[in-house]
């Protein structure tokens, strides 16, 4: 069964000549790897991983991304702090929050700081790809 939105994304990358660059930020290795594996089921995404907000900000300073997924609850630098720093470096990049235990207050703050979507863990493959597609094609 084809994933929702993939046909449109494939047409878009054919037009632009390269896959969409996605940065997945989560402090849990298995979460990063699952989301990377979801993306790798298609030829639509070029995926980078970051295990912390600090690493994510450094990567955004070094490379331009089409989309970032961001966990909110992380040690050292929270997702909110990373979101704020990323928006200073790359204000137009869409940032999708994916969280398992953030409070409504944190979710609202993320929205104020510029997060475009929120997904709650656990995330299913079809929902993940559908949300990425909707964000990238808007």
Give a structural overview.
The chain contains six helices and five strands, in the order H-E-H-E-H-E-H-E-H-E-H. It has 138 residues and is α/β, with parallel strands linked by helices. 48% of the residues lie in helices and 20% in strands. Helix 3 runs parallel beside helix 4. The chain has a single domain, classed as Rossmann fold, CATH 3.40.50.2300. It has a five-stranded parallel sheet with strand order 2-1-3-4-5, sandwiched between helices. Strand 3, helix 4 and strand 4 form a beta-alpha-beta unit. The protein is globular and about 40 Å long.
Task: Summarize the SSE layout with pairings.
Blueprint: H1 6-16, E1 20-25, H2 29-40, E2 45-50, H3 53-62, E3 67-70, H4 79-89, E4 95-99, H5 104-113, E5 115-120, H6 125-136
Parallel strand pairs: 1-2, 1-3, 3-4, 4-5
Helix pairs in contact: 3-4, 4-5
């Amino acid at each position: 069964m084809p994933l929702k939105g993939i046909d449109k994304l494939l047409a878009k990358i054919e037009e632009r000549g390269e896959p969409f660059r996605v940065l997945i930020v989560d402090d849990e290795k298995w979460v990063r790897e699952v989301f990377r594996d979801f993306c790798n089921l298609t030829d639509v995404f070029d995926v980078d991983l970051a295990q912390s907000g600090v690493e994510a900000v450094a990567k955004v300073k070094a490379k331009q991304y089409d989309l970032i997924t961001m966990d909110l609850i992380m040690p050292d630098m929270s997702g909110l702090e990373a979101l704020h720093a990323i928006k200073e470096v790359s204000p137009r990049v869409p940032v999708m929050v994916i969280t398992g235990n953030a409070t409504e207050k944190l979710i609202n703050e993320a929205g104020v700081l510029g997060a475009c979507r929120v997904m709650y863990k656990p995330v299913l493959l079809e929902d993940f790809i559908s949300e990425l597609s909707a964000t990238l094609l808007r």
